[in-house]
Write a structure and sequence with these properties.
Strand order of the largest sheet: 2-1-3-8-7-9-10
Structural class: alpha/beta
Radius of gyration: 22 Å
CATH class: Alpha Beta
Shape: globular
Helix content: 25-40%
Strand content: 15-25%
CATH superfamily: Chitobiase/beta-hexosaminidase domain 2-like
Number of helices: 6
CATH architecture: 2-Layer Sandwich
Largest sheet: 7 strands, mixed
Order of helices and strands: HEHEEHEEEEEHEHEH
Length: 238
């Protein structure tokens, strides 16, 4: 009888230990996954981040609806990572310092001047042509290739991550040819970050082109990684 009770007690103890170890392993697995996700986006759980968003062309103080949706999606993402978030306008000046920065919107028409500054200072091998009546209006030019703006059908967005020398935390730049492309890029990265992370050479610095197609049918949902242009975008002339 004592032997039977001892065996039962040992079995129960073994089960409890197994459950405890399994719970610890699962908790550790989730924590590792969380930190891997945070590393891709350039933040850390618990830190303070800033989202910088542009305005509508010709309407200061007003933000495109789709840019607002992109900001909401970024806010949800950062909340999932345990980060605190504040939002600033595109005329923000100065270093991002010890805050990871998420800068949304293109520089065309002065929509987000901070984006224009980031492109000039940190991505010298990439340019965006001015808005005009020409076929190459708002084309993204990098590595000898031009990626044209076909409004409402096929568009592109630049997603770049880098750390300014005067800052301790990185900037993640989302610069689309339109607000639809901005929203598509954020949505795509939130969904596919794990797969994209395996394709980039470095998580510390990268520049990607995201293509969104069949916009007239699928809105911002049909997006894909078009090309990793990190080498070309960060290259300096000569």
């Amino acid at each position: 009888m004592l032997s039977l009770l001892a065996n039962v007690a040992i079995g129960l103890l073994t089960s409890l230990v197994g459950l405890g170890l399994g719970s610890l392993w699962e908790r550790g697995r989730r924590r590792r996954a969380l930190y891997r996700k945070a590393a891709f986006f350039g933040t850390r759980p618990g830190e303070h981040c800033v989202i910088v968003v542009g305005t509508k062309h010709g309407q200061p103080g007003t933000t495109q609806q789709r840019d607002l949706r992109a900001v909401v999606e970024l806010t949800v993402l950062l909340s999932e990572l345990g980060c605190r978030v504040s939002v600033e306008s595109g005329d923000l000046r100065g270093s991002n310092g010890d805050r990871a920065e998420f800068c949304v919107g293109g520089p065309i028409g002065g929509s987000n001047p901070r984006t224009g500054g980031h492109l000039t200072a940190h991505l010298p091998g990439l340019t965006i042509t001015p808005f005009s009546d020409r076929p190459d209006s708002v084309a993204i030019v990098v590595g000898g290739e031009s990626y044209y703006f076909d409004r409402g059908r096929q568009e592109y967005a630049v997603v770049a991550k880098f750390t300014p020398p005067e800052s301790s935390r990185p900037v993640l730049l989302v610069c689309g040819q339109s607000s639809v492309a901005n929203q598509a890029a954020v949505h795509f990265l939130r969904r596919e970050y794990a797969r994209v992370a395996t394709s980039v050479t470095s998580l510390d610095r990268y520049c990607l082109l995201v293509k969104v197609s069949h916009i007239d049918v699928y809105s911002f949902h049909r997006s894909e990684l078009a090309r990793d242009v990190s080498v070309e975008a960060f290259a300096t002339a000569g």
